[in-house]
Amino acid sequence: MGAGEWKEWEFKALTDIWTGDANGKGNRFIPTGLMGSIRWWFEVLVRGLGGKACDPTDGRVRCPNHGKRPNEADHHCVVCELFGCTGWARKFRLMVLDENGRVIQNQIKAKQTFILRFIPLRFIREEEWCLLNATLNLISKCGAVGGRTVLKPSKEWGIEDLGKDDLGVHNNQVIVKNSRKGLKLRKNDIILKIDGEQVSSIDDIERILKEKRHGDPIEIEVKKSNGETEKIKSWAGKRHHIDFGLVKLEHSPEDINCSRGEAEKYVIDSQWRKGFDYKPFAWASLKYFWCVKGKYLARLNNNESTFNMVIGRPSEKEKSSDENSDKWIAGYKATGGQLPESKKVFSFKNTNGKALTFGFVNPKEKIDPENMKSRLKDAWGDEFNPDIDFLTVDQILGELFNHS
Ligand SMILES: [Zn+2]
């Protein structure tokens, strides 16, 4: 003992929560997926408060600083202090429990209650509890949780929500073995071409699709079971990679109190490692964050989506716009030597009535808040009042901390 009492936050899942494992299977619950996601939002918050947070997925910048010993200043950043890094263990154990106190083993489903129990393994400072509490509030108010697939492009490919297991090959022809309600690809359809390229094996399909993101438009030429050939406007990937992870915080510990000022003072303390400046993830900060509650961007039909209107994918966007800006917002997969880039706009709709759209701006890529507001206005029209609906750092931070 001596490390102190555990603290619990109770959530309700508003959508299924995807924490998929390395093989992209989402039916198991993987606590490290949730942990990675909480850490990612903690980093966003810390950067928004003026602190420095390393990116633990990037070997070039992640802590520790090997020139220092673990207890010396400048060994690790303020986020690693709580979440750990090589040579500095995480200060807590996270248990994810159902309302009866049992450890959750299977994927968390919409409407399910789940409890995050943080058990201190070493002493956790008041300010750390406070930042954690603010992070979990931020996720509930303006964010989403799930595996990092939501933030980094997924390796798992798909075709109109179907995957490898749904396809079969017979006589050099790829046949749809399983389909689902609402999809245009039907059972026993033969896939002839994708985007004009002939396919005769699953490998062919994988090669064409693995470079695409979930939701990218594609054209599939199929031979129907009646012998007719048809061109289908469809999408790459799987939509469950797009809409998941909305949660609502129902109960928080009552003994956590701190102001924004106290949190800011803590994250900029001189003991934390700060001597790294790595531009690729500088955008992942609450400073550049925005969110719109109650609205979502969606696929309107196979050719159009409000999502594409906002991220400006070249084929959909009529207006001339800056290509690099669009590329930055839309993100891209890793290609020869180039690291993958996350998309910067995320939108969620769920059947329980909560919708949310959030994202990041980057003035250096000519996407400032005004530019983003006008993109959203294009998509939502009069339903969207930028002055009221578009929340940014000060409004959001104001809700996360106590006033003092
Ligand atoms: Zn770090």
Automatic annotation (TrEMBL):
GO terms for biological process: defense response to virus. Residues 10-149 form the CRISPR type III-associated protein domain. Signal peptide: none annotated. The keyword Endoplasmic reticulum does not apply. Keywords: Antiviral defense. Residues 181-231 form the PDZ domain. Coiled coil: none annotated. InterPro entries: CRISPR-assoc_prot_TM1795, PDZ, PDZ_sf, RAMP_III_fam. NCBIfam families: cas_TM1795_cmr1 (TIGR01894). This is CRISPR type III-B/RAMP module RAMP protein Cmr1. It comes from Brockia lithotrophica.
